[in-house]
């Protein structure tokens, strides 16, 4: 039996090499060319597919040399751009020209189309411990306000006797009614949101939203016999989101003269608010609680448990009649 050749077996020079001496023969020329072509194709495809995307054109100067979507970074040969060593004034001129050429992009013109709404004056003159005030609010004012609160400039005014020679204020149902009047006025005039130092308030500041102040007034007057019980007032204030401490400070403030005491601006004073409100009602000749006035004219009066002098042949006591009239005035003026 012939023996197999060993790997370390000497092979005489010129003899044929065994097959194990070169197990991986050199590939042919065509094979090498094909391999190079595959590698180069892969690299080119990788570069084209995965190269980073250039940022969009946003600068004013760039807008001069490209479209409105994107452009490549400028090179040194472009006349629009200058190097840091070039004249600074030339760069400023170019920037100015870019603003003049693209005003719609760089300096958009915003035109306000908002028109001031002309709200309809609606006012109720009341006394806080008067049963007619309770009926007036709950049977006419509140049902109407649920639908027209955004179209009216609503205000509660109060009826009291005010001395023009002194700071005395006299209310028909006693001192407790004066306190109730002041509390309702204070609630409507408190800053919103609340602040701890009213003396720092500007001359014009946001006040309590009408939905809160009117709700608080209705709560107090609904149990008018409990005014001015502290716990009852506190319950109504908490129910309608009124700051009780600020309310108490306002009603307790005794200065009857705005800015009194040598201060630049005194805190809110319930006495001042009630005095001004009572004088306002007196100047209009309103003496009956409750008198509802729409657009500076008497709309309806609640007195002695009855509706009196209501417009539209008495139909003015109907909330829908008030709603319809407000809507009509609103359409005419807006």
Automatic annotation (TrEMBL):
<protein>
    <recommendedName>
        <fullName>Gamma interferon inducible lysosomal thiol reductase GILT</fullName>
    </recommendedName>
</protein>
<keyword id="KW-0964">Secreted</keyword>
<feature type="region of interest" description="Disordered">
    <location>
        <begin position="1"/>
        <end position="25"/>
    </location>
</feature>
<keyword id="KW-0472">Membrane</keyword>
<dbReference type="GO" id="GO:0016671">
    <property type="term" value="F:oxidoreductase activity, acting on a sulfur group of donors, disulfide as acceptor"/>
</dbReference>
<dbReference type="GO" id="GO:0005576">
    <property type="term" value="C:extracellular region"/>
</dbReference>
<keyword id="KW-1133">Transmembrane helix</keyword>
<keyword id="KW-0325">Glycoprotein</keyword>
<dbReference type="InterPro" id="IPR004911">
    <property type="entry name" value="Interferon-induced_GILT"/>
</dbReference>
<keyword id="KW-0812">Transmembrane</keyword>
<comment type="similarity">
    <text>Belongs to the GILT family.</text>
</comment>
<keyword id="KW-0732">Signal</keyword>
<dbReference type="Pfam" id="PF03227">
    <property type="entry name" value="GILT"/>
</dbReference>
<feature type="compositionally biased region" description="Basic and acidic residues">
    <location>
        <begin position="7"/>
        <end position="19"/>
    </location>
</feature>
<feature type="transmembrane region" description="Helical">
    <location>
        <begin position="33"/>
        <end position="50"/>
    </location>
</feature>
